[in-house]
Design brief:
The complex is a heterodimer of chains A (423) and B (325). Chain A has 423 residues and is α/β, with parallel strands linked by helices. In chain A, 30% of the residues lie in helices and 23% in strands. In chain A, α7 (236-247) links the parallel β13 (228-230) and β14 (252-256). Chain B has twelve helices and ten strands. The chains are: A alpha/beta (423), B alpha/beta (325).
Chain lengths: 423, 325
Amino acid sequence: MRLVLANARILDPSQNIDRFGDLVIEDGKIAGVVAAHSADGDEVRDCSGLLVTPGLIDIHVHLREPGFEYKEDIESGTRAAAAGGFTAVCCMPNTSPSIDSTAVVRQIIERAAEVGCARVYPIGALTRNMQGDQLCEIADLKAAGACAISDDAFPIQNAETMRRGMEYCAQLGMTLMTHNEDQALTRGGAMNEGRTATMMGLPGIPRVAEDIAVARNVLLSELTGCRLHLLHISSGRTVDILRKAKMRRIPVTGETAPHYWALTDSACEGYNTNAKMNPPIRTAEDNRLIIEGLVDGTIDIIATDHAPHAPYEKEREFDQAPFGILGLETSFAVSYTTLVLPGKLELPDLIRKMTIAGAQVVGIPGGTLAEGAVADVAVFDLAAQWTARAAEGRSKSRNTPFDGMTVTGKTCFTLLGGRVVEV
Amino acid sequence: MRDLLSIRETDTDQIHQVLQTAVGFNEILKRPVKKVPTLRGRSVITLFYESSTRTRTSFELAAKYMSADAVNIAVAQSSVSKGESLKDTLKTLEALTADCIVIRHPSSGAAHLAAQFTSVPVINAGDGRHEHPTQALLDALTIWQHKVVGAEDDTYPVALRPDKPFDLAHLTVAIVGDLAHSRVARSNAWCLSRLGATVRWAGPRTLLPAEAHQLPVTVCDDLESALTGADVVMVLRLQTERQESGLLPSLREYSRLWGVTHTSLRWAKPDVLVMHPGPMNRGVEISAEVADGVGGVRSTVEQQVTNGVAVRMACLYLLMGGSGE
């Protein structure tokens, strides 16, 4: 079976390719890039005017299965992923039961193989049941297929536990992904601490709670040699800590998500719980510093922290509603619209941060159109303008702050192992 | 005006309109028979998720004086956790054909949420630490009566300035105490500044919300600078649990630094008006002597309560489109 994506702009940052041509796929693998209109195949898809990239990779999503299937499941979550141009996602361990045993790792991998519209790589928990004390059997989790380890949603407060966790991960060569929050400083907090929170009468989550945890984790990474990945950077000050850590050659990487540069905490006005997440969206100054970090390479990765919650959970008093928003279906378009179109970030840099950079951090295949690679591919129409509509999403949930936003750049389809995924 | 959710979202003309209407209702409250037929056949439901005596009674009387049927639903804290969502409760009240819903709730924004779920007018009777709009309106009315009309004059002149009848431009109001947790302080900052007053906020830094200077207030770091030249001092209630949660070293030191006493009132203007939204902690945020008006200090606690009824009548009237007298 030979499939040709013909006459496209083919962009692959992993090989520094950005040219017009035909992408040839043979038996589910990339066969190469040739001159436009020169390739023949069993199926030729005209991609004139379209962008072809490696399938996007999101190393930070919550698929909610097992345990919270009323919010999302592997099928609906990967369908949302495919709709956003993603062919691989790494799912966080705060399920029920949490991903702290090989059984759950295997269950997720098997389920994804059955029903997934994208590949799913489970992330194992650092501590048992994410309780923050006893370490999980991380070697077993790795052997079962966990791609990385994380404490997301239940950040480790005890520095000694974090140190031991890092030592253990370092020896096993596992990347530790940390949610950075000193919870003594955030107790009761509902949104970014500042003018808007003060006017709305909501307890604040100060920036410094993230910065302190980042600084601690970076120092522990330096001490232990553990590969550290900073999840969802929201604070401009944290970008600077990460920049200095990299200058000291500490093995640390960082990610942010579109809402942290495209929105400010004023999105919470009117008690909009669809803008409630943790860490919280912050200020225009944080937006600026995060974009600066993306541009100079300090922030390696754009993830989504796709975190579905059922409408009835979000239609609540702001302080009672859960943290978290959707992201998979809007991530590329919002990024393209707010970073590339205004000339802040080059398109190849955006694609790198949404493909190969993430694959490298967690050590998974994909993110490349290199010859012989599995044909996980995304095709976008960069001219298409569309309006994000929560009600029309593929996710089971509706909690997006981008509802109603007009964006540019739309997924046409993805290929998963050479098979067309249309959603 | 569809709802009254916050003063921040209420424009200055509407504030004047409520106060003007309240002045009229204040006249009615002086009559031997206080009942008018304005809202006959209409119903007002007060939905209180927090205990309250004066605000709830005040709304209930306001409704009854206008011949509306008033029903109170006191939701005990315990039944909230096991019970119905706010959305479902609001849908039920609407189905019960309520014509106005007055809500008090411990969560900031609960009134906004309620208003999203019903087409019935919603009045915020205090939401978390966000706002308490009718309290600010009654405070503004009280200040105006004392400082513009003259306290002893109980015949209100026709609007002093027809365009801005409740202008407080020459006045300085100091709000002292636990500003971080106070919905009264927030509503008053917006209300009084929109009426032209200079508003000062003073309290320990641990009880000051982040970026308070971004609100229309001047933040003062000590009681002397807050009270110097003030026409009005508004003393906020200090919840004693603030000490237990580590925000204050002791009530004794709080009282020494921030307590409003005859001594500290010497910094203010000689005819300073002392206000307190109640209930008071005598000897903590306010000395017993000042609270009781000893030594000629003018305290407005009871007058605020009466004005509360008039302001709430005005709000119900304006939101429910009562027929004119």
